[in-house]
Amino acid sequence: MKIYDWPTGPYPARVRIAVAEKNLRSRVRFETVNLFKGEHKKPDFLAKNYSGTLPVLELADGTFIAECTAITEYLDALDGAPTLTGKTPREKGMIHMMSKRAELEMLDAISVYFHHATPGLGPDVEIYQNAEWGFRQRDKAMNGMRYFNAVLKRHPFVAGEVFSMADITVIGGLIFAGLVKLPVPEECEALQAWYARMQERPSVKNRVTMSDPIEA
Ligand SMILES: N[C@@H](CCC(=O)N[C@@H](CS)C(=O)NCC(=O)O)C(=O)O
Question: How remote is the CA of residue 154 from the centroid of ligand 1, in Å?
Answer without folding.
Answer: 30
